[in-house]
Amino acid sequence: MFSFLKNLSPEPASEKPAGWITKLRSGLARTGSQLTGLFAGGGRIDDDLYEELETILISADVGMDATRALLADLRHRVKEQRLSEAAELKDALAHCLLKLLKPLAQPLHAPAQIQARKPFVIMMVGVNGAGKTTSIGKLAKYLQGQGLSVMLAAGDTFRAAAREQLMAWGERNKVTVISQQGGDSAAVIYDAVQSAQARNIDVVLADTAGRLTTQAHLMEEIKKVKRVISKALPDAPHEVLLVLDANTGQNALSQVKAFDQALGVTGLILTKLDGTAKGGVIAAIAHINRGRAHPIPVRFIGVGEALDDLRPFVAEDFVAALLGLDE
Ligand SMILES: Nc1nc2c(ncn2[C@@H]2O[C@H](COP(=O)(O)OP(=O)(O)O)[C@@H](O)[C@H]2O)c(=O)[nH]1
Ligand SMILES: [Mg+2]
């Protein structure tokens, strides 16, 4: 029924590992079933239906502003297309959501572009527990799958366990991990960039310690880390990825603002979409992007803790999963 979504998907279905869409769907099932229930009622489109939809969207972490914008767009489409049945509203919502989310789907640069700037340095930042280190492990696998050589930098020097965790991901991926006992984050990453240059490595994935945006001294420290990286290599870091736990709801928006202000975030990784995430925060992020001179794309989404559980963000798949559309 919603084949227009599938036809627009840039990634051929055959290249999507089985199970990954299923994980995203089951992660977003709560929102999906609420929406399905709403539209299956069989009634007509009226103010009550819009009101119920508004409640579902807000409780799915879409946020007030994005919900309002989405509903205005939806009402406009309903009028334009002369829709009257509740069942027709689902298709219209899919259309409006896709329009909102589509600009977020800008994948990381192609392998050839990455190699042209080697070592391409990717710095991972975010709050504690967001999934930075795990995402580095998964990203190492993804990039190696694209034919790129990878090195990891254990830039989370605050806890010994963090270094060990990254070492384990290095072993799983059979890639070198640069770490120092007792060194500071900037020094470790500087060292890794130089080492990658010497060894002709394509990509350096730099881990950093988690921090709250309210910890001013730690936000200053991460700015320093970025400055030091650029001393090792003038254009680096080429990518600053902010890792967001999809379960943090509207707080994700303030994390985007604060980390972007401090570092100039070039992309997002939204993790834990396999859990009990409501998923709507992505619409809220897309909405704030509309007012930005430099919109921040969602590069990847995380749907689990295993090596293969990181995929480029594809707006069509996300909308289908969020709305519980037929496969
Ligand atoms: N279910 C699920 N768990 C995740 C995902 N990404 C990370 N985690 C888990 O979240 C926890 C924190 O991850 P970690 O990478 O250590 O976060 P960091 O503090 O930002 O480095 C770990 O238990 C990870 O296994 C994901 O996409 N899905
Ligand atoms: Mg970590």
Automatic annotation (TrEMBL):
Q: Which reaction does it catalyse?
A: GTP + H2O = GDP + phosphate + H(+)
Provide a GO biological process annotation.
Answer: cell division
EC?
A: 3.6.5.4
Membrane topology recorded in Swiss-Prot or TrEMBL: Peripheral membrane protein
Spell out the family assignment given in the record's similarity comment: Belongs to the GTP-binding SRP family. FtsY subfamily.
The family database entries (NCBIfam families) matched by this protein are listed as: ftsY (TIGR00064)
Quaternary organization: Part of the signal recognition particle protein translocation system, which is composed of SRP and FtsY. SRP is a ribonucleoprotein composed of Ffh and a 4.5S RNA molecule.
Q: What is this protein called?
A: Signal recognition particle receptor FtsY
The gene for this chain is: ftsY
